[in-house]
Amino acid sequence: MILQQPRGSKSLCSIVMTGSELGQRNNGPALLHINQRFTQHNHPSCDLTPSRNDDDVTRKIARAGALLNIRLLDHVILAPDGGFYSYKNARPDCLNGGEP
Questions:
Q1: Do 26 and 54 belong to one domain?
Q2: N or C terminus of the chain: which is more exposed, having fewer CB within 10 Å?
Q3: How far lies 57's CA from each of 6, 79, 99, in Å?
């Protein structure tokens, strides 16, 4: 886990956690007073088209976060060639946990 805090500030500006760290009992976002998050993953094939599974996982993350009052800001798919797909720009309904 990496915690980043602006120099001289008492507020946390970002946290980087792996999936296994997120699931650990003492590292839960609610304990860190997180109310917003984003997630990302890569598509090594450079095909940025989200799969049905990508859509489903995005909705599940959004719904789970909503139970803890944690808003999903964006889910970004990255490609090795520098391309990216943003759910915020293309499919904001998924970020609210909504169905297509």
A1: no
A2: C
A3: 31, 18, 12
Q: Give the structural domain span for 95.
A: 36-100
Average pLDDT over residues 62-87: 91
Which of 74, 77, 78, 64 shows the shortest CA–CA distance to 95? Answer: 74
Alpha helices in 1-100 (DSSP H): 19-23, 52-67, 87-90, 92-95
21-73: pLDDT as tens digits: 555 555 555 455 678 888 889 999 999 999 999 999 999 999 988 888 889 99
Q: Same domain, yes or no, for 98 and 52?
A: yes
H helix count then E strand count, the chain: 4, 5
